[in-house]
Structure formats: structure tokens, C-alpha cells
Amino acid sequence: MIAVVKQAATKEQLGHLIEWIEDRGFKTHVSQGDNETIVGIIGDTTQIDPFLLESMSIVERVQRVSEPFKKANRKFHPEDTVVDCGHGVLLGGGHFQVMAGPCSVEGKNLLHIARLAKKAGATMLRGGAYKPRTSPYAFQGMGPQGLDLLLEASAELDMPVVTEIMDPRDVELFLDRGVDVMQIGARNAQNFTLLKEVGKTCVPVLLKRGLAGTIDELLMAAEYIMSEGNPNVILCERGIRTFETRTRNTFDVNAIPVLKHLSHLPVVGDPSHATGYTRYVRSAAYAATAAGADGLEIEVHDEPSAAWSDGAQALTPEQFADAMRRIRLIRKAVTANLDEE
Ligand code: PEP
Ligand code: MN
């Protein structure tokens, strides 16, 4: 971290600043330029509040030179992380996976949808048993019964399941049932108690970007999980809230290569929540694949108009099958080694 000191600062004031920093256990390195003086702060500067430092009268601005996320940082872990999602399914480091299924688990139709999704090429089954709904009066999910249905379908089709956990008190239940991947939804992306609790397990976590979360906030949320000991984190770009109203969210395709640059963790794109409308989901899925995502999460329903949640953005199994064929082609194009041709 560096602090740029105002030109008007006296030697005495600069001395006080250095003392303040060193009193907190850091080393300093002062470089006196013609126009400005820069104080380099050496040590684990994640402990320093940059805003507090910036509020000091002689400090012009403060800049971090190293990111506050360490365990999620590619600088300290250059190779891609490969997450073992169970049932022999690996994600990341060249292993591309597609998770598909309904927004909510609704009953017996789950197995039917899962079969069709698998036939089309899905390698993981998604479905919410606990639903974070904007209205407390909307369907809240089937709860434990929903988990049972997911695990039955998972066993029958030999596919890992990914399902959302909303409450830290449910971690034990999810572990008992043998949920393969726990999803942390956008609304809980900064629920630090929940992040820490799933961090104490070794179950893979699909961590979604917050509704208005920055890339750094997503990485710091991952850091919360990893700092508790769980290295199996999958990042998910699912669209962010912007001024645009024509789509449910704005798909930040940029975030995919940015996250892959900054972090070694696998990155998945969710074109369903990113767009909110069936007619746009496939285009966004292709964009995410082309942008280098390690996987996709797509909502699929056999009868979208009857879905209990998010029917407006569900692909039918036929639409999903068509999308999968094109996704495979795009994936081939972006991973091809053209030197060999
Ligand atoms: C979901 O996956 O159904 C969901 C609620 O996603 P998000 O948290 O991204 O809105
Ligand atoms: Mn949904």
C-alpha cells in the first residue's frame, strides 16, 4: 500500500505519519520525488483501513498495490483450481461443465427435467429447495423434501447436484443429505456468517456475485470461505443491477476474463438470471462460453409457463438441447490449438 503525501506537508507532519504507521507494526519506505512524497507501507496491509489513512490531513490519496484477497489470488496460486464436484465431475482447469434444471424443485417433474437435461448434455443438476424470494408471500421452496427429490434424481442419474443454502443453520442438513455443491445466492453474497459456515466444510461452493457487487467484493466473499479452510470455491457471474430495464440484470461478460485473470478459481456464467427472459438466455450462454467460462448454470423447465419460479427465463428441454450443441461448438473454437492445424 502506498500513501501519497500532500506537497504542503512539513517534515514534522511526515514524521508523525510514519510514526503512526510504524506504531501499527508496519515498515515504511519513503521516496521523495520533485512533486510528491510517497510513503510505501510494507507488511500485511489488509489490516489497514485505507479510508482512515486517506482522511489524514497530509495524505493526498492511498492506493493498494497488492489485492486484499490472498487465497483466491492467482498471484499466489498460478495454476487453475480444479473443483471435484462429485460423481466424477471436475470443474475448472479445462474441465467445462453445464449445470441445468428448474429454478425451484417442485416435485416429481424434477426427475423428468433432469433426465432430459442430462440427455442434452448437462453434467450437473441444479434446483432450489430453499428459495430467496423478494416477497415473503411467494413460494419459498420445498425445503428438506426438495433436497430429498434432488438427491434421488442425483443417485438415479449419477449427476452431482447444486442447490442453494440460505441459512448457516442448514449446513449440517446439507452435509447429512450429501449435497454435492452448495450454492450461495446473489442475495447472500455478503452474508459473512453463511460464508464462514460453508467455509468450515470441504463441500464445493458455487458463489454467486451480489446483486450490485463488484468483482473485488465477489473475490473477498470467496476469501471468506477459503480463509476458513474450504478451497473448493466456484465463482459465478449472474448479472448485476444497472440502470437498464429491458433485461432482469445486465450480464457482465467482462467479469469472466477479469475473474480468471485475478483468480485461479473456476468461473461459471449464469445466463438465466443475467437476462431474465428465455429469448435472450441462449445468446448470453454463448457469450459466456466464448469469454472463457469454465461452465454454465442454466434454468430448464419442461413447462415454463407452469413453473413455480423464474418460468419467464427457463429454457425448454428442446431449447436447451439446441443450445448445448452450439455451446460445444463455441467451446471447441475457444479452446482450439490453431498451431496444430
Ligand atoms: C437461482 O439460482 O435460482 C437464484 C436465485 O440465483 P441468484 O441468487 O443468482 O438470483
Ligand atoms: Mn432462479
Question: Can you walk through the features of this model?
Answer:
The protein is an alpha/beta fold. It has 2 domains: 2-63, Alpha-Beta Plaits (2-Layer Sandwich), CATH 3.30.70; 83-340, Aldolase class I (TIM Barrel, Alpha-Beta Barrel), CATH 3.20.20.70. Helices cover 34% and strands 17% of the residues. The strands form 3 sheets. An 8-stranded parallel β-barrel has the order 7-8-9-10-11-12-13-14, surrounded by 6 helices. The chain has a 4-stranded antiparallel sheet with strand order 2-3-1-4. A two-stranded antiparallel ribbon has the order 5-6. α7 (215-227) links the parallel β11 (205-208) and β12. The termini are far apart. The structure holds phosphoenolpyruvate and manganese (II) ion. Residues 103, 128, 132, 185-187, 208, 238, 270, 273 line the site of phosphoenolpyruvate (PEP).
Distance between the termini: 47 Å
Helix share of residues? 25-40%
Q: What pattern of helices and strands is seen along the backbone? A: EHEEHEEEEHEHEHEHEHEHEHHEH
Could you state the CATH homologous superfamily of the largest domain?
Aldolase class I
- Ligands (ions, cofactors included): phosphoenolpyruvate, manganese (II) ion
Task: List the topology elements.
Blueprint: E1 2-5, H1 11-23, E2 27-32, E3 37-42, H2 50-54, E4 59-63, E5 83-84, E6 90-91, E7 97-101, H3 109-120, E8 124-126, H4 144-157, E9 161-164, H5 171-177, E10 181-184, H6 192-199, E11 205-208, H7 215-227, E12 233-237, H8 255-262, E13 267-269, H9 271-275, H10 278-290, E14 295-299, H11 317-335
Helix pairs in contact: 3-4, 3-11, 6-7, 10-11
Bound molecules: phosphoenolpyruvate and manganese (II) ion.
The site of phosphoenolpyruvate has 10 residues, from loops.
